[in-house]
Task: structure prediction
Amino acid sequence: MAYEEFAKVYDQLINEDVNYDHIADRLKDLMEKHNVKHEDYLDLACGTGNVAIRMAKEFKNTYAVDLSEDMLRESYDKFKENRIKGKIICQDMTALSLNHKFDVISCVLDSTNYIIDSEDLEKYFKGVYDHLKDDGVFFFDINSYYKLTNILGNNIYIYNEEKVFYSWENVLEDDIVSMFLTFFVKDGDLYEKFEEEHFERAYKEEFIEEILERCEFRVLGKFNGYYDEAVSDESERVLYVVGKKAEV
Result:
């Protein structure tokens, strides 16, 4: 299953490239812009909890959901270390069932691209809709079509650090990028090898927005990543801010 072994080294590899403080600060700014209440927060595909622990301080109740138990164990440790009370739940975000509604739901760092079936994508959006309060907002981002097809697709990347070495080989076919990762992680004088395989689908913005429309969402904002900038043809990440359509 994806991320089983990767969870052990995820933060070491990702933290160098991702500014979690910036992401959380941007989401908080957008919350204020849209006058969102600070009661209930849900982070989907929470991974090791880096965004959730930063956002949780703004809310009375925090839920963190991921499909990987290994990632959730890392999240639990961070919640405990930061003295954050929250519910950590192992669940598929395309079949969300929490019996709770939220003021803010987030799903960051291209987790939405991991949903490669369009029917599952619609189930995911519908599940978010059902768990979002009427005046709540949903934040999610995608790796852009441009990034997945022109930058990541059919390329090989190498990472070499004292304790971790990995190769990342991508194959693009029918708008789906297959990512084959081989890791060597130092354990004493030896290196432990493990492999991961991940898949992301390249979605065009028009397709995403068509499904959002069918799910009764309205787009409140769309940005070039986590900056107050308009999306361009060469944007690599697109951040969506959506809410429920107002009843007529």
User: Anything to note?
Assistant: The longest strand covers residues 132-143. The chain has a mean pLDDT of 92. Residues 147-201 form a domain with the N-terminal domain of TfIIb fold (CATH 2.20.25.110).
